[in-house]
Amino acid sequence: MASPLYSPLRRKPRRHGLFALSPLAVMAFLFVALGWLCGGLSQAPVLIVFVLTACYSLLTLRGLPLETRLSCFAHGAGASDLLLMVWIFVLAGGFAASAKATGAVDAAVTLTLTVLPPSMLLAGVFLAACIVSFGIGTSVGTIAAVVPVAAGLAMPSGLSVAVLTAAAVGGAFFGDNLSFISDTTIVATRTQGCRLSDKFRVNVRIVLPAAIFTLAIYLFLGQGHAYVVSTTAVTFSTWLRVLPYLLVIALAMGGMNVLGVLLVGNVATGVAGLFTGAFTTAGWMAETTAGIASMGELIVVSLLAGGLLEIIRQGGGITYLIHRLTRRVRSARGAELTIAALVSLTNLCTANNTVAILSVGRISNDIAERYGVDKRKSASILDTFSCAVQGLLPYGAQLLMAAGLAAVSPMEIIPALCYPMLTALVALAAILLRLPRKYSA
Questions:
Q1: Could you read off the pLDDT of 52-67 as tens digits, one per residue?
Q2: Are 141 and 258 in contact (CB under 8 A)?
Q3: What is the SS3 assignment for 13?
């Protein structure tokens, strides 16, 4: 008789706690080992790392036949939110390629170099991403709109593609954390039972210093760069070519779903390209197809990550973390640190900050009530630490997407991600120093 297919309601695997989390350690080891063999951490083959880690993860589900383990893996790889992300990758890849063929990237670069002085270029990319992400409430949509332009600025400015991409990614998480329409903000406030505006008042006092420090760092790094000013005149054609980017940003800030935004963006690039003579209809289709194909590795890695993380969840990894971290809470400070650790480690296991908040939101609310933590502060901690961790995950959707659009390795982007790193440090300091005072018991 065939082995039963995987189902959350059927036979459960034996729970092995820490062993269930071992795939994450194996992944880290493979990144380091293969990076060393290939000449550097940034050269580690991401796809090979995930294939090997996924194979190992199947061994951690003891007590189940192989067919059931594979079904469990497939269940995670086929999760609805992950498949939605795949659609976003497909449309983003097509949009980025057709926009580049239209000349939208070059036009946007020309306009940027015309407006911004050299020292402001890096900081300007970060600030633009902050504004866009706060308006649209999604890091993924911001990355799709801003990263191609940021990467295009590398050659004329002399700045690294990875550094410019990191500035855009960091700004994308600023809005993901603070925006009133961000899914992480909505989930965090709902699980903690507080209002969006109240959570914002606490959150902005914690992360604004990190944003200001990041801006200062990028201003400093931008000093000494003298880019070659474009000799291309800004004409009606220039504005027409950059129109798809402006349209994408405007529609997203108007509240349109990211899939709809990218679909309209794809059509707009086609119309602009045909009108300006950048390509024929056949050329547009070819460019779009090439752009979608360029996202193939990213899509495969995302599916492997989804299956891998479902294996960890089913093996009891997340349950183990929650149990271990909540055993010795004794004070409000300890409770806040526990909430931060819970959401951070869960985010490592899920690679999705919204899912991480949903997973630990209820128990975080119980911890907050028991130890007198202000619910506005606990909501802020959940959102801030989940976004900080998500922004640094080389296997997270945002970094994978940014790396794909900029044609660099995720490991090259991470060292320059000032904002997520500073956000985590400032948020940790706020817990230890009991800041903001008004919201800290």
A1: 999 999 999 988 899 9
A2: yes
A3: coil
